[in-house]
Amino acid sequence: MFNVANYLETIGYAGSNEPTLDTLRAVQKQHLMSVPFDNSVNANVDRGLSVWDDVDIDPDESYESIVVGGRGGVCYELNGLFRFLLTGMGYDYQILAGAVRQVTGGFGPDLEHIFGCVRLDGELWLVDVGIAGPHYIEPLRVTSEVQELYGVRYRMFESDGYWVVQRKPKTGDWQAIYRFRMQFRDIDEWNDPDPSLVEFPPGLVAVGTFIHSRATENGQIVLIGRRCLKVADGEESVRVLVDPVEYKETVNTILNPETRGVS
């Protein structure tokens, strides 16, 4: 059964439950360190648009299997649970939809990714615990000002009706994470969506690629197929894990941290 106090304890958060910015920062980071992204559990290349049938999660069922049971999840599961957690803590949470940057440099469909924002003292903060690739491990304020988290710089700007969120490690260029419309969403929008808002153009994404990721104390580790990206204090390193033993060990490191909430 979904329980806020047990949820926080399980992910290793032991601070104040007051709905402040400091609490929000700590809870998002602890969640990302403790609960991994893992699309292998839901891998099914033949579901088509029926993948959106599960977006309106059962919080009790998802809580038991992911938070208590220890398995990873995908964006709508992880951000769905996070939405219930934050609203249970008293935060003013709204759902947003994002189009994630693809390997081609383009963006996916508008309703591809579900995440959210929190309003605090008249300002909006993006919160997201469910995206596969490298991203912000603490909330980002919706502003045109550059922000820095653990050595990585972030910025966002308006373009063609979207807010585009970009990141820049210590070495490398600015690169988009995703774009989104500043339009608060309702979960029912995914129940019977316009196909143009959820379908990928042919060839845009490699179907069936397993993705695993988890935050660490000062960065992230992201495994896309056998390509392993590690981020630490803004420094990035990439390796292709050819050795099957090393690959399995890396997957295990991401999905089964020795202690929940500890990098």
CATH class: Alpha Beta
- Count of individual beta strands: 13
The chain-level mean pLDDT equals 89
Return residue spans where pLDDT drops below 50 for at least 5 consecutive residues. Answer: 44-50, 202-206
Any idea how many domains?
Answer: 1
Q: Strand arrangement, largest sheet?
A: 5-4-3-2-9-8-7-6
Residues in β-strands, percent: 25-35%
CATH architecture: 2-Layer Sandwich
Proportion of helical residues: 10-25%
Rg, rounded, reads: 17 Å
**Category from helices, strands and their pairing:** alpha+beta
What is the succession of H and E elements? HHEHHEEEEEEEEHEEEEH
Kindly, what is the distance between the CA atoms of the first and last residues, rounded to a whole number of angstroms? 27 Å
Characterize the biggest β-sheet. 8 strands, antiparallel
Walkthrough of the structure:
By secondary structure, the protein is α+β, with helices and mostly antiparallel strands. It has a single domain (4-255), classed as Arylamine N-acetyltransferase fold. Helix content is 23%, strand content 28%. It is built from 6 helices and 13 strands. The chain has helices at 4-10, 21-34, 59-68, 75-88, 195-198, 244-255; strands spanning 37-38, 92-100, 113-120, 123-127, 140-141, 147-149, 152-159, 162-168, 175-180, 211-216, 219-224, 227-232, 235-240. The strands form 2 sheets. Strands 5-4-3-2-9-8-7-6 form an 8-stranded antiparallel beta sheet, with helices on one face. It has a 5-stranded antiparallel beta sheet with strand order 1-10-11-12-13. A hairpin with a 2-residue loop joins β7 (152-159) and β8. α3 (59-68) packs across α4 (75-88). The chain is globular and about 45 Å long. The two termini are 27 Å apart. InterPro entries: Arylamine_N-AcTrfase, Arylamine_NAT_domain_sf, Papain-like_cys_pep_sf. GO terms for molecular function: acetyltransferase activity. This is Amide synthase.
